[in-house]
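Slide 14.
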Amino acid sequence: MTAPAVPAWPAVAASAALVALAAFVAARARLSLAADVLIAAGRALGQLIAVAAVLTVIFDRGGTAGACAGIALMVLIAAHVAARRARPLPRARVVAASAITMGTTATLATLVAFRVIDTRPHVLVPVAGIVVSGAMQATALTLTRLGEEVRSASPRDSRLVLGISTAAARHLSQALGEPVDHALTPESPGENNRRVRFSFLREGEAWR
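Slide 15: predicted structure.
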């Protein structure tokens, strides 16, 4: 088996030079972004080193069990990232973890069952990373949309969407009993016409 291509030191030096150039341009233009560029580059470097170390252990000594452990770690991180976009929602991290886990498990199980991929770590882990990434994006978009709907809705509608206890539901139904009755009870045409005429007269007096 051919070993994967690894960037040589000249390529690493070229990448560092590009980062330094970006920081220099930001500082020269007074964009107040030079420090952010350097911090982001340092964080990216640290993350790449950590991921490389974990993958080296999994590929060399982990086997299938190590690959499954690495996939579980990816799912947990993806659930944390997706749940951060839905802070108003309760138990968002549990929901995100469940959704990503079910989607990833179903996809990988199907691929392995039909022998599209095998269970070797250097095959299973990269494919799982692609699947987890897609599941994370779909879950994050769904939770973000749900959070926007909750923030734009009234408190009553938000509680109904998110789920409330039996006692709270009982109090809510009692409070909403009369408005619901008025909303569901049909009015006679005469009563409706009288309300329209009264409203029209009040607007006419306001214009005077």
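Speaker note: The chain has a mean pLDDT of 77.
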